[in-house]
User: What shape does this take?
Amino acid sequence: MKTIDDFNFQDKKALIRVDFNVPLDKDFNVTDTSRIEAATPTILKVLEDGGSAILMSHLGRPKGKVNPDMSLSHISEKVSEIVGVQVKFVEDCVGEAVEKAASELENGEVLLLENLRFYSEEEAGDETFSEQLSKLGDIYVNDAFGTAHRAHASTTIVAKFFPGKKCFGYLLAKEIKAIEKVMQTGEKPVTAILGGAKVSSKITIIENILDKVDHLIVGGGMTYTFIKAQGGQIGDSICEDDKMDLALEILKQAETKGVKVHLPVDVLAANKFSNDADTQFVGVDEIPEGWQGLDVGPQTLENFKEVLAVSKTILWNGPVGVFEMENFAKGTIAIGNFIDEATQNGAFSLVGGGDSVAAVKQFGFQEKVSYVSTGGGAMLESLEGRTLPGIAAILD
Ligand code: AMP
Assistant: This one.
């Protein structure tokens, strides 16, 4: 795996795909700078080697049309501030003016290109557009994990114009290593906690990880499809009736493969889907009509705690309750605390995919787990066992 450390950028122009798809407020101020901070070590490595950096990214969903609200010019100052170098901005990402700006770039300088998605060719993975981008730099660096699952021009196709001169930036390399640690090289016992709303959106992940984990903890809305399939009463809890056979099949497969599946045994049930609902703790398979399980109960948490305490590698994807509502967030917070303890005792813990990162950030667990993935969709696809095109294009 070629990373940025395998190259010396002295007198070289690095064409870096970053993920600067950051949130902006109505006055175009960046409200969360974590993606810019995450890309900074890669940019600094190039500059410290004595090279220059050309940064390309998308912002929002302009759908192939120029949209001033989604111009990367809005973030140029913020990038300058964080990287510590006055960034030059160019009002396009391909063409003569951009090529000129790139060729005039001196060592130590940074050039930020305009939003790639102002061109429909970007998402279409257009070859000519990719070739135009490739003219801007000597070495291609992909540091955008959030878009690594897309075969877009700047994330994948452009790489073919850099034979032997392409590599992963620090952020992308870190993501790849974290996934490897969980899926291949992790110390046993390996435990996956899968939560979230539906079985259907996690099914491919479950099937893939059954070969890799020792324990599978199931929580969240998914629980009830498993419980009903086994004959339990789930009241009005969320359930996918058409996935009940699949749920039983998963349990059978897990048994064959020696994976221990841990389902909730008690839940916090509510009489409506609302933070001010009446609540009661009940057995997971005896939820009365008119009530729905919205969080896990205390006995369940005890059970999950025991498993997590002995785990050496932990993957967490999806909340175990409706964490957006304060009254149903306790289970998810408790899981975060158990993972924190396990991590302090030497376990490797990875959180990623979909909403898990939102939950982790909301409750301040990002400093307490070993790694929080920066890519929702890209992480989900990695956990499903797919090779991401942006990663394959560098390894090629
Ligand atoms: P996902 O994006 O698949 O990880 O799903 C996350 C969503 O699942 C969150 O918005 C949670 O509110 C929701 N969720 C978790 N537990 C439940 C539950 N018991 N009933 C309904 N929704 C749930």
